[in-house]
Design a protein that fits this description.
Order of helices and strands: HEEEEEEEEEEEEEEEEEE
Number of domains: 2
CATH class of the largest domain: Mainly Beta
Helix content: under 10%
Keywords: Signal
Distance between the termini: 77 Å
Signal peptide: 1-22
Shape: rod-shaped
Length: 213
């Protein structure tokens, strides 16, 4: 704390000395970046802009600002498949702190993968006292995308055996490939629109169609 106080006093004394000589202390608008994995990030401080390359962990805006000048660092453009935002120190006045230190954090976008099922009905084993046993189809999304169970009990249209299914979110830009891991022995199910690459929107057009054997 003592060192920080002395540094701040030194910075203010320097600003005062430069002002007495007819000039103002200049400050770099700079900071750190966390999680930038793709290209396309553009930062801005007013009209001063800076494209930031993938993998960068720090930045310095092209133009310095004078003592007492306000700054406000914003994200003008996000990198591909990511969303970035300032999390600390993005605005203020130059010289009110020893140095300008903006913190930017970037996170990977993610979107769900899913679709509809049809023709999935319970077994015909209902009695007066018990309900029919649901039929369940297990789907797998690649080796790391997880698996889900699609059940006839989840049908929103019981006449057609129709309903919806959805996997957990997948990283934007990542490939997906959904296959049938298991299904009841007495039905035959097929999948369509089950492969692709996430491109900025959720996937909801897969179709799981089931028919009796």
């Amino acid at each position: 704390m003592k060192f920080s106080t002395l540094s701040a006093v030194a910075a203010l004394m320097l600003a005062a000395a430069l002002s007495a000589c007819g000039g103002k202390a200049q400050f770099a608008v700079q900071g750190t970046i966390d999680g930038l994995n793709n290209s396309g990030l553009v930062l801005a401080n007013g009209s001063d802009t800076l494209p930031v390359p993938s993998g960068a962990t720090s930045f310095t805006m092209p133009r310095q600002i004078s003592y007492g000048t306000d700054f406000n660092v914003t994200v003008q453009a996000n990198p591909a498949h990511q969303t970035c935002a300032p999390i600390a120190g993005a605005s203020g006045s130059a010289g009110h702190t020893v140095a300008i230190a903006v913190a930017i954090r970037c996170i990977q976008n993610s979107y769900t993968v899913g679709g509809q099922f049809s023709g999935l009905f319970p077994n015909n084993d209902a009695t007066a006292t018990t309900t029919a046993t649901p039929r369940v189809v297990v789907l797998l999304n690649g080796s790391t995308g997880g698996q889900i169970s699609v059940s006839s009990a989840d049908a929103t249209d019981t006449t057609l055996g129709k309903g919806e299914f959805v996997f957990p979110a997948v990283a934007d830009g990542a490939a997906y490939g959904v296959t049938i891991l298991s299904q009841p022995a007495d039905i035959n199910c097929t999948l369509t629109n089950n492969t692709g690459v996430i491109n900025g929107v959720a996937v909801s057009n897969m179709l799981l169609s089931c028919k009796p054997k």
